[in-house]
Amino acid sequence: MGWRARLLALDGLMPGMDEAGALAWTSLADAPQDAELVFLGLDGDRPCFACVPPQGDSAPRMANPALWAAMAALSPGDLAVYGGARSLVDWHARHRFCAQCGGATEIAKGGWQRNCTQCGAQHFPRTDPVTIMLVEHEDRLMLGRGLGWGEGRFSALAGFVEPGESIEEAVAREVLEESGVTVRDVSYVASQPWPFPSQLMIGCHALADDDTVTMDETELAELRWFTRDEVKAALVGGPDAPFAKPPREAIATHLLTWWSAK
After folding, report:
1. Taking the CA atoms of the chain, what radius of gyration do you get in angstroms?
2. For 188-205, how does the pLDDT look when each residue is reduced to its tens digit (9 = 90+)?
3. Which CATH number is 128-260's, of 3.30.70.270, 3.40.50.1000, 3.40.50.620, 3.90.79.10?
4. How far is CA 36 from the centre of its chain?
5. CA–CA separation, 238 vs 257, rounded Å?
6. 235 with 164: CB under 8 angstroms?
7. pLDDT at residue number 262
8. What b/e readout covers 168-190, taking b as 16+ CB neighbours within 10 angstroms?
9. Using CA atoms, how far apart are residues 79 and 95, in angstroms rounded to an integer?
């Protein structure tokens, strides 16, 4: 199998790229002998694998400009493959010890499980649900600029779903906490896996009856309402855009495009 099985080229957690700007692949025979291998799936009749790196990634997702540039260059298909592989191998690199007893864990079921070698506990890759929401009031959207973001860069508000919450409750709580605005009529729009490290972004839309904001300064640097024309102009881009739109590969851009076309 080694001659036809493919190994995703990774430098730690950074994607390897070929001359055409696509994901680079090598032969499974190139994997180190002691490497932990994760089965990614089949490409036709060829099995595809990735190696678990020595360390996971604990840095903030915005702290690696090279990674953002690489992701922006990948095709949607390659980006999906890389995102899934990155989440999975990063989880393995950060879960080499059991959360129950502290014993060493070992890879199992092709990389979709780890088992404790001492107490036998089974551990599985996790996905963390995050709501990301467009808040609308009288044909305007409320967008925020996060702490540490560049001037003029705005996006939708977002936050983790807490234990015991529904998606609708998480949207309402996060918006209230970050802006002081009460929302209603929460609806689902779309979702996107986001490998930083293992989030599922749940895109939503909600309506506000009042546009008075009380910004949480521990979470946001700026909070503003934008008209539909301003959102459309930002999506087009250019030096006169009212704000810098989120990256192409982020679900926030999809949500803004969806709303501007309503």
Report:
1. 21
2. 999 999 988 889 999 999
3. 3.90.79.10
4. 24
5. 16
6. no
7. 86
8. bebbbbbbeebbebebeebeebe
9. 24
